[in-house]
Target: Probable enoyl-CoA hydratase, mitochondrial
Amino acid sequence: MLAATARLARRPVQALAKDARAPGVALSSTVRQLSTDFSSYENIKVEKKEGRVALIELYRPKALNALCTPLINELNDATEKLDLDADVGAIVITGSEKAFAAGADIKEMQSKEYINAYTTNMFANWANLSKIQTPTIAAVNGFALGGGCELAMLCDIILAGEKAKFGQPEIKLGTIPGCGGTQRLIRAVGKSKAMELVLTGNMMSAQEAEAKGLVARIYPVEDLVDEALKMARQISSFSKPIVQMAKEAVNASYEMSLEEGCRFERRIFHSTFSTEDRLEGMTAFVEKRDPTFKHK
Ligand code: CAA
Model:
């Protein structure tokens, strides 16, 4: 409740426009009591870095960062806290050099039955990540398979190390993607490639993923996280509310027709004129100086 109130209080401008968040689990229904302590996590590491950015490392090395329920709960908890932190302008999520994440935890799922999967709405809360307002960058080295690929696609930008591999191999386990793989992949790579990945379980290289538009940029393995942090700092150097509005407008295209989306975009564009940072940005240009954004 506390978080929901804080979130609403921080969104006066967007509140003027229609909320474009995806339908489904409302974030406010899943938020927990907030504290700023990240030290109790066992499956992720969270670090706030200079330049108003945060780095989250998925950390289950023995299981190739398989995404067990406690890991997802910690990730949601951390990203909700960071989203409300005025001193965080962008979040980088990464794994190890071998695996971003090798999917949902198969050992945890193995003995589950339908009634449990259905009544607990298994995996519905994974999408919380896509509902935060702060931009997220997935820095993918190694395997991003199944839920790992889906987790990367829940982020706003995917950067890849040159040996990264993406895939939806659930078909080999007698199941199908359950966290948006069939829906988000097709939007990123088109029907034919999405069908190939989902129906065969084949993996796609970083180079192919970049060529198809799933990945924004590729870097040498050892440079990837630094480059992701650099991009996060670049985003964080801009006005936080304006960045959030830009993200909201781009994401609206998932949900709306072109005409609705363009009208939504225009309304948000209009609402930037209610911020001090819009005035500062344009004034700085006219006065031939760098802007000083106050994030309001
Ligand atoms: N869940 C649980 N444990 C996993 C795992 C997963 N998704 N992926 C890997 N592991 C574990 C392995 O069981 C192994 O543990 P043990 O040492 O205790 O046996 C350890 O991680 C190392 O894995 P491998 O020995 O298999 O490593 P490898 O280098 O030989 O192979 C791999 C790497 C190709 C990624 C292989 O581990 C693999 O195929 N993993 C499963 C990938 C997969 O099917 N993902 C989809 C999961 S379902 C899903 O995600 C549904 C959804 O939509 C959310």
User: Anything to note?
Assistant: Strands lie at 44-49, 53-58, 90-94, 99-101, 136-140, 143-145, 157-161, 165-167, 203-205, 217-219. The longest helix spans residues 69-83.
